[in-house]
Structures are given as structure tokens and as C-alpha cells.
Amino acid sequence: MAVKPYSESGSKKVQIEAMFDNIAPNYDLLNRVLTLGIDTRWRSKAIKELVNHKPLSILDVATGTGDFALEAYKRLTPDKIVGIDISHEMLELGRKKISKKSLQDKIEMIKADSEALPFDNDNFDAVTASFGVRNFENLQKGINENYRVLKSGGKIVILEFTKPRAFPFKQLFNIYFRYVLPVIGRVKSKDPAAYKYLYESVQAFPDYDEFLEVMKKAGFKSCSWTSLSFGICAIYQGEK
């Protein structure tokens, strides 16, 4: 059964949209606090994987408030980045950040479903996703869509939480994500279910080699993963 934020019944997609709309105002601050600021370094390392590829067009899936898209533009200076998300409130915050940097003509934010992308086949040089694919209602369908819109020879780079395997990081991770993080989230975001869901969704996600199998099934080749910060998250990449 798919892990959902609020109720076992009903659409996960609808619940994810509502959850991110609820926590949007505090999302960026909570990310910095909850990851102790390490998330910025994780994004930087993921974007570095695209430097030699030199993509001119990038699709950032589950873009949220646009942090990954903004950093990707800064590092890669492509002609165009399109960020898509199902949360209207997250996108609005992202548009404000993009506007402040006068990058509206370079980064476009669109409300769209990651599992039914509104783009033609073979449309982007690169596809990225930062901490979003585990929120897909149908993971395989979402990764299949990433593959469809990527040009031949294009590259996908995905950053996602993983489950640490080594002592004592496995135990510390579980304590922090299961008990400490929901308390912080409850105080700051007023939506405790969102941070309970974070722990549960990470536990349910098919990480490491299991996720590579999902990518390979979609058609990606040369798939690999790189563990970061003692296994707290990983960079996944593949080519079309």
C-alpha cells in the first residue's frame, strides 16, 4: 500500500498537493533546519553531475520552490529551465524567488502532474528531481514520463533520501526522522502529518539498486547511484 500523508484512503496525489500547499510558507526554512543546511551541498553535488553534459534545456520535476532550478541555472546557465510541481503555493513562492533574480525568461514554473507531463517526446537535454520522486503516486509511471520527454543522449539526475545502512548512522537517522523531525515540523509548520509522512515515505521508497531497477525498466542505461552523508541521501543518474 502506498504511503500517504493524511489517510490510507483517497488519492495520494491529491493529498500530496494539499500537504505541500499547507507547508509551503515554512518549507525553505524547515529544509535548512531539518537537514542542518546540508541539503544545499547535496544539490550542488547533484548539479555537478551535469556540468560535462552541458544541457541547454532542463526539466526540473517536483521543483517545489525552485531551489534546485535556481542553483542549476547558476551553475549550468542553460537556455531554459522548466520547473513543474502540483503544489500551487510552492510554485508561487518559487516564482517570487525567480522574479527577484530577474530570471523569469530563463526559468519557467508550471503546475503539472509529474506522471502526465505536458511536453512532447524528446524535449529536454536533462531531467532533474530533488527529493520529489518518492512522492509520486505511481513511481514507475513517473520515471517512464521522465524518460519519454528526455532527448536521446540526455541525462537524468535524481536526488533522494535513502535509508542509511551502517551503524550508528542507521540508528541515529531513524531516531531523528521518526521522533525529532515530526516535533520540529509540528511546531514550525502546523502540519505534523507532513513530517510524519516524510519518515514513512523514506522508509517505503525503493532506494539504491531497487530504484535503479525502476530506472532501467523505464529504459535508462548507464544507471548508477552515489551515496551522500553516510547514506542519508543518494544521487541517481542515467542516460537515454
Cα-atom radius of gyration: 17 Å
CATH superfamily of the domain at 37-163 and 206-239: Vaccinia Virus protein VP39
Low-confidence parts: none
Number of strands: 7
Give the spatial strand order of the biggest sheet: 3-2-1-4-5-7-6
Coarse shape:
globular
How do the SSEs run, as a string of H and E?
HHEHEHEEHEHHHEE
Mean pLDDT: 92
CATH hierarchy class name of the domain at 37-163 and 206-239: Alpha Beta
Structural class of the helix and strand makeup?
A: alpha/beta
How many helices? The count is 8
Query: How far apart lie the N and C ends?
Result: 30 Å
What is the name of the CATH topology of the domain at 37-163 and 206-239? Answer: Rossmann fold
What is the CATH architecture assignment of the domain at 37-163 and 206-239? 3-Layer(aba) Sandwich
- Helical content, roughly? 40-55%
Strand content: 15-25%
Main β-sheet description: 7 strands, mixed
Question: Can you give a write-up of this model?
Answer:
By secondary structure, this protein is of the alpha/beta class. The protein has a domain at 37-163 and 206-239: Rossmann fold (3-Layer(aba) Sandwich), CATH 3.40.50.150. It is 47% helix and 21% strand. The protein contains 8 helices and 7 strands. The chain has helices spanning 12-34, 38-48, 67-76, 88-100, 139-149, 169-189, 192-204, 209-218, and strands at 57-61, 80-85, 107-111, 124-130, 150-161, 221-228, 233-239. A 7-stranded mixed sheet has the order 3-2-1-4-5-7-6, with helices on both faces. Helix 1 (12-34) packs across helix 6 (169-189), helix 2 crosses helix 3 and helix 6 (169-189) runs antiparallel to helix 7. The longest helix has 23 residues, at 12-34. It is globular. The chain starts with 11 loop residues before the first helix and ends with a strand. The model has no long low-confidence stretch (mean pLDDT 92).
